[in-house]
Amino acid sequence: MSTDPNVLGTLSQEELQAHGVTQQTIQSLLLQIGTLEERKIQLLLEVQSQRDKAEGIVADGFRRLNVPDGTRCNIDRDGVIRRIP
Length: 85
Description:
Order of helices and strands: HEE
Shape: rod-shaped
Strand content: 5-15%
Number of domains: 1
Number of helices: 1
Largest sheet: 2 strands, antiparallel
Strand order of the largest sheet: 1-2
Structural class: mainly alpha
């Protein structure tokens, strides 16, 4: 036994092994979370790209229809553009 007064004891082999497996599982889960976070970022970037594309389509339509910049409006599902008074 150690003469270090701070040593309280030692884990059994079974406890030490179980602890090691648990620590490996934790590391694996953290790695998976990291991968999911990376994928989340990629998806958010794709969402922004699609929003930019949609805004460009609308801007092109507004130019074609000579809708003045800054005009407040809604676009219905059927594509009708209505001015918001």
